[in-house]
Write a structure and sequence with these properties.
alpha/beta, 3-stranded antiparallel β-sheet, 37% helix, binds ligand T4K
């Protein structure tokens, strides 16, 4: 791999791609093959594959210990974790939620028979604030579902105080935030409950997996029944039923990932810091920084394309993609612009100006097992070249647009 020195070298204009193989967004960390075999051989020897097996119990204990929380309840994935938590919280009516999130956050509310009410997010943190929540709260509001976007905590002190004063439950989607802390306290301890994802693209890779944490004993008891068809002793209840049980195979993968967690975080941080340093002096792009006083998992390298850039975020993505750099727009489109949610909104409620703007400007760079700091250095240098020569790239791309299959139009 050789750094590109001029825009003539860009793959968009016929040069060889910077990378021969794709550099994706997504953690995709896997254990060594022999470690994997050892754990899976043991499952096969036990001949016990699901229904609250020993590895799931061990994982629940390991998570509770690591996050310093009383209860951890593992389930099949992060979306199911949200569904189980919402059912166990026994909510009704409206729940305030950001539209700047993965659709699963909102789909889980919908599934649980609740009405999502969107609040805008803060332009600096990309998350809900007590002020934005207060703007949309009504008598029908029963809870707030905050999202710890990019692994940073979503205003825990502020939102907890607001929810207490207004008699609302507070649930957090912490799918990005495993192993992160805020103000000396691990994420997993905030609100009534918090929900994590162990999808392959997350730092704890169980292929699919998820977990709910809480310090509330009664809620934990309800979570445990809710994930297991919400069975009553005589099987006579009419609750919404759901199979959310995690399998032994998933638990084994999560436990293997936990045993290497610090190593993954260090690796992520080295890549993230390379991007941060490499793009420090580049105009038109801004890093969303991690507060080093907290623990971070550095899963995401998030940048915003600023107004002075002559190329839009989507045009930059096209240039990168031609180089086999699969940077992404997260989240796009925002959930309030997706059907059926947009159909139910009228007038002012459709306007979430910060959310809408972030969806046009946020750029997520590759970070994880398939990237190393040397790749990140090359990607940062390439972005610098792209942003410094935006006008010329745009003019050339527009002139050749007919000959290229450009996604966003130039
Ligand atoms: N709340 C939030 C805030 C979330 O971000 C998510 C999920 C949830 C809730 C729900 O949690 P889960 O129910 O998923 O546990 C991904 C993931 O599927 C999803 O877990 C994640 N968030 C979401 C943000 O992203 P895609 O459609 O973007 O993934 P995909 O297939 O495009 O993969 C990304 C890159 O990783 C690709 O370049 C390919 C590569 N990849 C992917 C997989 C799955 C691999 O190399 N190997 C793999 O096995 O959704």
């Amino acid at each position: 791999m050789v750094a590109k020195r001029s825009i003539d070298d860009l793959a968009l204009f016929g040069g060889a791609p910077l990378f021969q193989t794709v550099r994706p967004v997504g953690q995709i960390y896997m254990p060594a093959r022999d470690t994997f075999d050892t754990w899976f051989d043991a499952i096969i020897e036990r001949r016990y594959y699901t229904n609250h097996g020993p590895l799931v119990s061990r994982l629940d204990r390991a998570i509770a210990e690591r996050l310093d929380v009383k209860h951890a309840v593992s389930v099949t994935n992060g979306t199911v974790a949200l569904m189980v938590a919402l059912v166990a919280l026994e909510l009704s009516g409206d729940v305030i939620v950001p539209a700047f999130t993965f659709p699963a956050t909102v789909q889980a509310l919908h599934w649980a028979g609740l009405t999502p009410v969107f609040a805008d997010v803060d332009s600096r943190t990309h998350m809900l604030t007590a002020e934005s929540v207060a703007k949309v709260k009504t008598d029908r509001t029963s809870a707030v579902l905050g999202v710890h976007v990019w692994g940073r905590a979503c205003a825990p002190a502020e939102l907890e105080a607001y929810c207490r004063q207004n008699d609302l439950r507070l649930l957090y989607d912490a799918c990005h935030a495993f192993g992160c802390s805020f103000d000396g306290k691990m994420i997993g301890n905030f609100g009534d409950a918090e929900v994590f994802s162990f999808h392959a693209t997350k730092i704890v890779n169980a292929a699919e997996g998820g977990c709910i944490t809480t310090n509330d004993d009664d809620l934990a008891a309800r979570l445990i029944t809710a994930r297991n068809f919400h069975r009553s002793p005589k099987d006579q209840s009419v609750y919404v039923r759901l199979n959310g049980k995690m399998s032994e195979a998933q638990a084994a993968m999560a436990l293997m990932a936990l045993s290497q967690f610090e190593e993954f975080v260090d690796r992520n941080e080295a890549i993230y810091s390379t991007y941060e340093r490499g793009l420090e002096g580049t105009s038109g792009i801004k890093a969303i920084r991690y507060d080093r006083r907290n623990r971070n998992n550095f899963q995401y390298a998030v940048f915003e394309i600023e107004p002075e850039s002559s190329l839009s975020r989507d045009q930059i993505l096209d240039v990168l993609r031609a180089e086999n750099i699969y940077a992404r727009r997260y989240f796009f489109p925002s959930v309030h612009r997706l059907s059926p949610y947009c159909d139910a909104l009228d007038g002012e409620k459709r306007e979430l100006p910060v959310t809408t703007s972030l969806c046009q400007t946020v750029l997520q760079l590759p970070l994880g097992a398939q990237i190393n700091p040397e790749d990140a250095e090359l990607i940062a240098a390439l972005l610098d070249l792209i942003l410094e020569n935006g006008d010329e790239i745009k003019a050339r791309a527009e002139a050749t647009a007919g000959a290229n299959s450009l996604r966003s139009g130039w």
